[in-house]
Amino acid sequence: MPKHIVSGLKYLTAVELIRKGLSQKEVAKILEMDRSTVSHYLNGRNLSWNSIEVAEIITKFCPKDFLTLTYALLNNSEKTRIIVKTCSKGNYQAKVEETCIGCGLCADTCLMNAIVLDDLKAQIDSNWCCGCLMCRDVCPTNSIKILEVEDGC
Amino acid sequence: MVANTKEVIEEDICVSRSSADEKREWSYKDELCVGCGICADICPVDAIELEPIGGIVRTGAKKSKISIDENKCVLCGMCSVGCPADALDLKIDNKSIKEMDSYPKLIKSAEIDDETCVFCKACETACPREAITIARSLPERSKLVTGEIEIDKETCIDCGICEEMCPADAITLSHQIPTSADPSVSSDIVVDKDKCVYCLICKKSCPVDAIKAACRTCSYGEYDLNPEDAEIEGSSFIDDDLCINCGWCQEICPVDAATVKKAFKGELNIDQDKCTTCGACVDICPCDVLSFPKPADSGQIVDKVFKDEKYCIYCGACGKVCPVEAIDVKRTDVDYTPTKSNSWKNKMESLKS
Q1: Closest partner CB to B2 (pick from A109, A140, A143)
Q2: A153 pLDDT higher than 50
Q3: Per-residue pLDDT tens digits for A8-63
Q4: Domain CATH code at residue A116
Q5: Percent of chain B at pLDDT above 70?
Q6: Is the pLDDT of residue B141 over 90?
Q7: Which residue of A lies nearest to B348 if distances are taken between CA atoms?
Q8: ipTM of the assembly?
Q9: At residue A71, what are phi and psi to the nearest 5 degrees?
Q10: What's the confidence (pLDDT) of residue B156?
Q11: CA B95 to CA B136: how far, in whole Å?
């Protein structure tokens, strides 16, 4: 069953990536799948529609649940971040206050690998932020602000 | 998801956190800890507590001077940067943050210039942390002796008085029981020139004046010693882990060969009225700043506790341990390397009181 949901998530990701103009070859490479499987997915073959429905529901979860569930299903951080980033509906802007002490807890926590430390301060790549707020919750000095922004902002 | 692990080895503690990208390891060495509690004061998440240091230090109890809640610790490293005794360290991917430029660092050092040093070992004796080792090789004593003696064996009566009197055990007689074939009490008398210091005790004590002295100084008209023969060679070593930069070596050095740079400036005030002379401060002070004065005359009233701030590093351990709050340690200046992080700057500044 988890495998079916994973297929559903990969299907949704593949559709979105193709919509963004990537080739089937590129999509196959990103998702580490056979090109033929991608092709089959896109043609609606070898995939139960029910899996897609479940996957769609998951992508509409709150960002943290979407992310952690996807990570639990895939157990692979690189594919998780691509799927979540591609299928995530929201856009986020991250801000780190001067009170950051550079402990790196946020960077270690972030499943999207969106955080690095620079001069004892966390730098959050808003492009990769999925809005899960796990970094904000774990920050010992409450230095992280995550804002949901309108498309294009 | 991200959890710390704690390892305790006797009084030492290690807390670590590993992720896919980096490994952070915090370590505490109890042997180096002075019990100042700066770590507990600087910790942004209140993970560190200072244990009852007075009892631990005075009883030699096998107990860590600080405790850490590994569930609170975020492994930021602020405590290790503030620690004046280098008892704490944070390593990120096996590299100490003390070697990383982005982190601030207390500016403190102690150095002995071997070119100036005369290897008298005063610093080694004075160092309260036993951090200094002076290795020295002394010149050959025989090369510094200004003359030599000669024993006229014809005159010598083998009494052995010179042998007994010689403070350097340089004269040896070959004692024997006389026989009809060799009717003498000693077969030979020899002087060990490496041991003889030309003190002339032998000559002065010889009852038959059999000892002749040849003074090199007199015969040549001037002192003929080669200065190279008197050269003392050596080297100094300061154990940076143990050194607390108290300045004892600098103050006691007779030739100004030791230079100490302290990280903190401040004031140490003792309320002599409040003091109960329990001695906890004297015992805990890592720098031997404090001592109990002895009155010169009976009946003379002296201070309860004597201080010499020359040696003080303003760590504040004495103030923390004093049970009656008779000691106030103020830090007025903290010298540290620059950092771009404002939160770290603020924390370093917070060490000032």
Answers
A1: A109
A2: no
A3: 999 999 999 998 888 888 889 888 888 888 888 888 776 777 888 999 999 999 99
A4: 3.30.70.20
A5: 97
A6: no
A7: A101
A8: 0.82
A9: -65, -40
A10: 95
A11: 35
For A117, the enclosing helix (H) or strand (E) is strand A115-118
CB contact under 8 A, B74 and A77: no
**pLDDT per residue as tens digits for the range B45-82:** 999 999 999 999 999 999 999 999 999 999 999 999 99
Same domain, A14 and A43: yes
Q: Is B94 exposed, middle or buried (0-12, 13-18, 19+ CB in 10 A)?
A: exposed
pLDDT tens for each residue of B8-21: 999 999 999 998 88
Q: How confident is the model at residue B220 (pLDDT cuts 50, 70, 90)?
A: low
**Which residue among A101, A103, A119 sits closest to B340, beta carbon to beta carbon?**
A119
Please give the pLDDT value at position A45.
Answer: 74
Residues of A in contact with B82 (CB under 8 A): none
The DSSP string of A20-85 is: TT--HHHHHHHTT--HHHHHHHHTT-SS-HHHHHHHHHHHTS-HHHHHHHHHHHH--HHHHHHHHH
Distance between CA atoms of B88 and A129, rounded to whole angstroms?
Answer: 35
CATH topology for B5-99 is Alpha-Beta Plaits (3.30.70)
As a CATH number, domain B141-229 is 3.30.70.20
pTM, 2 dp: 0.83
**B176 contact partners, CB below 8 Å, separation of at least 6:** B182, B184, B185, B186, B187
Q: Which of B284, B267, B275, B266 is nearest to B303 (CA)?
A: B275
d(CA A143, CA B45): 13
Indicate the pLDDT class of residue B224, thresholds 50, 70 and 90.
low
Contacts of B45 in chain A (CB under 8 A): 140
Question: What is the CATH number that goes with domain B109-138+232-261?
Answer: 3.30.70.20
∠ Cα B270 B273 B278 (to 5°)? 70
What does the domain layout of chain B look like in residue ranges? 5-99, 109-138+232-261, 141-229
Question: Going by C-beta distance under 8 Å and a sequence separation of 6 or more, which residues neighbour residue B297?
Answer: none
Task: Tell me if chain B has a CB within 8 Å of the CB of A72.
Answer: no
- Contact status, residue B315 vs residue B85, Cβ threshold 8 Å: yes
Count Cβ–Cβ pairs < 8 Å, chain A vs chain B.
65
3-state SS class at B282: helix
Identify each DSSP E strand in chain B by its residue range: 5-9, 12-18, 23-28, 48-50, 66-68, 88-92, 95-96, 109-112, 132-137, 147-151, 171-175, 186-191, 211-215, 233-238, 258-261, 264-270, 290-291, 306-307, 327-334
